[in-house]
């Protein structure tokens, strides 16, 4: 009985589009350990501003864990085994990240999600990401799991065309979103990060996105 009441209280899942679930606070129990690991990791594996296909530098700083990482250079963008900025393979996905992603996917009904990459996006004050679709993965029936840490940000969630109306969603530390079904190919982005201080990450926001790239 006690357990049931507890899980009901803890479960603040919002289904806000076909296949898209907002698991508010799902990552909070793991947040301290993960943020501590990320801060140390980023010190030795500095994230980079990737290039867009148009040849502009993104404002977000990016690195990856896993068998492949998402990279953008003058030569193009997509998943690669070697980080072109360090000439090294990407570090293996830490077990605590894999566990979190699998638990979240499972909660959303994807019981066999095995991500092969975790994209780490670091936002500083003013960093933003314009509306785009995630289409570099092989199998769109696989969901994407995204996890937010640090400062809050306004997320923009659109439709299947760039022109479709967007909804604004306030994402905060510990929020997890699972993008499957129709939502998997919806346009999305985030507004510029506003100044603030977060006890674990300072003036930053870090977003993790877990994907099955399925390449190589
Ligand atoms: C909706 N990242 O890395 S996370 C990205 O906050 C990206 O760093 C944003 O968009 C960020 O590609 C948004 C939420 C998210 C991630 C992937 C999605 C939303 C998505 C894929 C399909 C639809
Ligand atoms: Fe995206």
The proportion of residues forming helix, as a percent range, comes to 10-25%
CATH uppermost class = Mainly Beta
For the sheet with most strands, the description reads: 8 strands, antiparallel
Spatial ordering of strands, largest sheet? 1-2-14-11-16-9-4-3
What is the string of helix and strand elements?
HEEHEEEEEEHEEEEEEEE
Annotated CATH architecture: Sandwich
CATH topology category name: Jelly Rolls
Distance between the termini: 48 Å
* Number of structural domains: 1
Strand elements, count: 16
Rg from alpha-carbon coordinates: 17 Å
The number of distinct helices, counting runs of at least 4 residues, comes to: 3
**Attached small molecules:** N-(carboxycarbonyl)-S-(naphthalen-2-ylmethyl)-L-cysteine, fe (iii) ion
Structural notes for this entry:
The chain is of the alpha+beta class. It has one domain: Jelly Rolls (Sandwich). It has 3 helices and 16 strands. The chain has an 8-stranded antiparallel β-sheet, covered by helices on one side. The chain has a 4-stranded antiparallel β-sheet with strand order 10-15-12-13, with no helix packed on it. The radius of gyration is 17 Å and the shape is globular. The termini are far apart.
Which descriptors apply to this entry?
216 residues, alpha+beta, Jelly Rolls, 8-stranded antiparallel beta sheet, 4-stranded antiparallel beta sheet, 16 strands, binds N-(carboxycarbonyl)-S-(naphthalen-2-ylmethyl)-L-cysteine, binds fe (iii) ion
């Amino acid at each position: 009985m006690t357990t049931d009441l507890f899980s009901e209280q803890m479960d603040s899942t919002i289904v806000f589009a076909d296949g898209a679930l907002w698991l508010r606070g799902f990552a909070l129990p793991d947040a301290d350990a993960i943020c501590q690991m990320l801060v140390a990791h980023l010190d030795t594996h500095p994230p980079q501003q990737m290039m867009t296909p148009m040849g502009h530098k993104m404002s977000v700083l990016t690195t990856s864990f896993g068998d492949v990482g998402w990279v953008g250079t003058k030569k193009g963008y997509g998943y690669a085994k070697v980080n072109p900025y360090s000439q090294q393979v990407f570090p293996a996905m830490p077990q605590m990240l894999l566990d979190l992603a699998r638990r979240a996917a499972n909660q959303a009904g994807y019981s066999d999600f095995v991500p092969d990459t975790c994209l780490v996006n670091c936002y500083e004050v003013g960093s933003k990401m314009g509306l785009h679709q995630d289409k570099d993965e092989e199998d769109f029936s696989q969901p994407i799991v995204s996890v937010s840490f640090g400062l809050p940000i306004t997320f923009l969630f659109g439709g299947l065309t760039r022109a479709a109306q967007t909804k604004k969603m306030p994402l905060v530390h510990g929020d997890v979103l699972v993008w499957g079904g129709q939502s998997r190919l919806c346009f999305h982005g985030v507004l510029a990060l506003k100044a603030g201080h977060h006890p674990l990450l300072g003036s930053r926001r870090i977003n993790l996105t877990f994907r099955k790239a399925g390449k190589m």
